[in-house]
Amino acid sequence: MRLEKGIIYLGIIGIVVSQFSVFSYVNAVDNIPIQNKENSEIKSALQGINGLLSESSQVNLKSDNDSAGIVKTKNTIVDIPKDADEPVNVKAGNTSINITLPELEGAKEGKVIAKGVVAYTSESDFSNIVQANNDGSVRMTTIIDNPNAPMEYEYKVELEEGGKIELQSDGSAIVYNNKQEPISIIAKPWAKDAEGKEVKTWFSTDGLTLIQHVEHNVPGIVYPVVADPWWKPFVTAFKWIGGGVKVIAKKVLPWAPVLCLTGGGWAWYRSDAQGWVRVGDAVAGCLL
Fold first, then answer.
1. Fold for domain 34-233?
2. pLDDT 10s digits, 238-258
3. Alpha-carbon distance 39 to 261, whole Å?
4. CB under 8 Å to 4, separation ≥6 — which residues?
């Protein structure tokens, strides 16, 4: 009888231990630190946008006590903070811009998830990502997790009095300093869902804050949604060359694309061996 009881007790203990082992194994798989799981999912979402991560594949990212990543390119220095509430600093020549990302609840410290890419996870239904690219431009991407996420994402820009953000007719935006010289262009925004479908998005501004609207809470959207303001700092100074024409104070190689201020707004031009090839109205000013 004692032997039978012993067998019964051992059997119960064995079941408990077995169940505990299974439970522990499941937790070992599922209870990966939440930030690591989220960062992995963020990287996967970015990889779903063809060519996106390759844009920063050549950068050399360093960190320090305050910065999750500092990237120096030929023309710019991008300082990405560890603290999600602190601004991203972009320096180009004598110009420096501070840009604060959309506000997160319970944001975690920024972590590098790919070359030149820092992600901020949080308790919010979206995440912020900063990507310092090979060419000195900066992508500030939002990963939207579900329909409960906001439809508006604010990027606050620190400018001297008289500086402003101005929308363009093509959907892009330009940041001007207090001398009314453009110091950065933000490309026309885009947003895509997990299946690559385009999601309606556009910019608005009050002059100091750039707001990206993403109309994701509609039927047919598959999450996550990736939305992307792309900041391109201007790295050259202006000079007047006469005849009312203002151009970049830097040589441009043949066939190099440049952005020019025309009578109808900004448009792309290029140079050939003889000079400018016009693709719009008369040139009022040009930028690399």
1. Beta-galactosidase; Chain A, domain 5 (2.70.98)
2. 343 334 444 443 333 344 445
3. 40
4. none
